[in-house]
Amino acid sequence: MGAKRSLTEKSINKIVIKVGTRLLTYETGKLNLRVMEKLVRELADLKNQGKDVLLVSSGAVGGGIGRLGLQRKSLSIQERQAVAAIGQGFLIQFYEKIFSEYGHVVAQVLLTREDLEERKRYINSRNTLSHLLEFGAIPIINENDTTSTEEIEFGDNDKLSALVATLVSADLLIILTDTEGLYTVNPRLDSTATIIPYVGEITPEIKKAAGETDEVMAKGGMITKIEAAEIVTASGIDLVIANGLQNNIIRRIIEGEEIGTFFDSKQSYLRSRKRWIAFAQKLKGTLFIDQGAELALLKEGKSLLPIGIVKVEGNFFKNDVVSICRFDGQEIARGIVNYSGQELKQITGYRSSEISSILGYSGREEVIHRDNLVLC
Length: 376
Hints:
The chain is of the alpha/beta class. It is 38% helix and 17% strand. α3 (60-68) crosses α4. The longest helix has 25 residues, at 77-101. Residues 212-219 have low confidence and may be disordered.
């Protein structure tokens, strides 16, 4: 862990702000206009300063429930998709109305996991957001709940906001929630809980503190925010978790006030392609390796060869992303494979020179090249 740093030491020009459903809507599902207007005013002021701003906004499903006057909150996937279609239009219409009063243009961007998993779509998404910022627009981003299913959804907008931040190489991600930040324990369950103002390294103890959630917490709870912190800090991006109900919260964060919990980014961080491998991909399988291969990867920075693999799990294809684990199951890396799972099961434990005679064609000597491999 390096020396403790603060936001005042850094240049912040591109900011992603994530705001959750609980801040944007009341329990009735109706929009909380007071919170939304305060949020828009702060973002408009940032734009007036010449900063790039991206908003990851929840609230489509909640807004749709309120718009329809539904009394029940538990919905099937198909019902949620239909409600989101109503809520998304309603939500963006409101943002458009308020931002236009401050002279700013907004753009709605709806993403699914598949948009970031497939490399070409990932680059297209990045290019779209980059051009919107060049045009001076404020992208308002949400998961596309009208088409997402359990198989392709992000699961929570905390992770989506982290992936967006890495996608555009932001300087800072701010996650606004209904708590003051990360506590030593869940403050709703333990009155002795104290705020953790600074996190320089995400340790098992930090995850343990975040994992103590209850039914009152937002979807995913604090643990998904810690997972988002792992993504952005490894990508050289700072993160602040703070209470979105406080006055001028965004301005105070950017001015360096010690408020909420500040997650300091790593000074040695992943570049764009390796961010995509490490975080944007859904793992399709697992390779278990021996100690010799582990040493070659971790200490010598080498590629993974078939002779170092002892076990293959999963039905994956060439160019899929897989997890690389010690035999005890601890993940040490992720990477893009040059062979399918079926092919790998045939060449596991063999030397690279034997691949062509086993598979009947001359393939790559590496199972995963070091340029397509990210250490955990």
